User: Fold this.
Amino acid sequence: MEPIKSIQDLKKYFQKLPGIGEKTAERLAYACLKFKDEDLENFSHAIMAVKEKIHRCPSCGIYIDSSSCPICDDLSRDDKTLLVVSETKNVISFEKNNIYHGQYFVLGGSISPLKNISPDDIYVPELLKIIDSKKIEEVILALSSTIEGETTALYIAKLLKDKNVKVSRLAFGLPLGADLEYVDDITISRSLNGRVVLSNGGEDE
Assistant:
């Protein structure tokens, strides 16, 4: 029997999702056959809404689905401290801990020569503009302890070395090679509180 084309087409797109292999994609495709018409239509609308309604905040880079950013517009936050992360999902990891009350900047990825991702392919130039325009006093590099995260952190720290800004990074309580998405709350909290200073506003260390 020839494979059902509609199932194969759907399976192909499920496989584009991170962590979804061929067998899981096939199960998901067949599971859609059991959806009620209303549920299938709502599922389709939800997928389209992700693309149509969600956009990047022009200031901090967090994904939002409204005209205002809940982080940037929160006047109670420290606007002189900037925590730099790779993805919006990393912001959620810090917010649920309720231990950080400054601003964020989302790079939209990490530098990776092996994947041909350069600083200009993510939002490094925009980060530098934000630091200058908002007169940021401390930049906390909260990047994963992967090769890509380390490369990105070192690159940004080098760019900021001669600027009048304190640069720190999460303490090495994070497991080597760990993605922040999968690190527990206590470890993230300790890593933030025990952050290591890389440069201190252009002053001699």
Notes: The longest strand covers residues 78-85.
